[in-house]
Amino acid sequence: MYAWQNWSEINPFKPKEVGCTLEAKICPDGSAVGRSGPNCEFAPCPSTISSPIASAQPQIPAGWKTYVNSTDFYTLGYPSDWIFGQESYEPERISLTKTDKTQSKISFLGATGYPKYTIWIAVRANPGYLSAKEYYQSNWTKSESGVEIRRQLEEIVISGEKAIRFDSDSEVSLNKMVLIAHKNRFYEISYEPISPDETFLKYYDEFDQILSTFRFD
Fold this sequence. Notes:
Blueprint: H1 7-10, E1 24-26, E2 32-36, E3 41-42, E4 65-69, E5 74-78, E6 83-86, E7 93-99, E8 106-108, E9 111-113, E10 116-125, H2 132-139, E11 154-158, E12 161-169, E13 174-182, E14 185-194, H3 204-212, E15 215-216
Antiparallel strand pairs: 1-2, 2-3, 4-5, 5-15, 6-7, 7-10, 8-9, 10-14, 11-12, 12-13, 13-14
């Protein structure tokens, strides 16, 4: 007579049940997991997707002045020796001007004075929500006479928005221009000195520093 046993009771390949210790592992998200399975390994932590760290707001250097435009929702800083101006007939356009009295006076359009370095900021409507590059292609690729102008464009990021920088020909000099598209507005920021050619870029580094403080509110 044979003694019958359940196959599962004598199956040599059946994993042995093991009692795991009651330990806990603290996961990065603050939750805890215990040991489980035949080898008493810690269960995997819940998967997490790390969110990108928000970029710090541009810092305005100590001693600089701060301009806040609550109508067009932007802020920027500028050195105290740059003079703020605003056109009465075009209030959405402001200027920052530095007069350099260390240079010799120059003649310009019938007037004589010290070289001036002006940064203009103008805000335009963007009802079609175009990008900065699309706005450039619509407004800056041809001269007033209709001649095509080819410029070297540099793509940059300002206050989290894609912008483009390029040289803009004017009647008197080769100015520097930055275009930013933000929501339903365009922001045109230009560096337009009235100075001798050899000192045209004298304050371009300060223009870059001022530009680095620009942020949308």
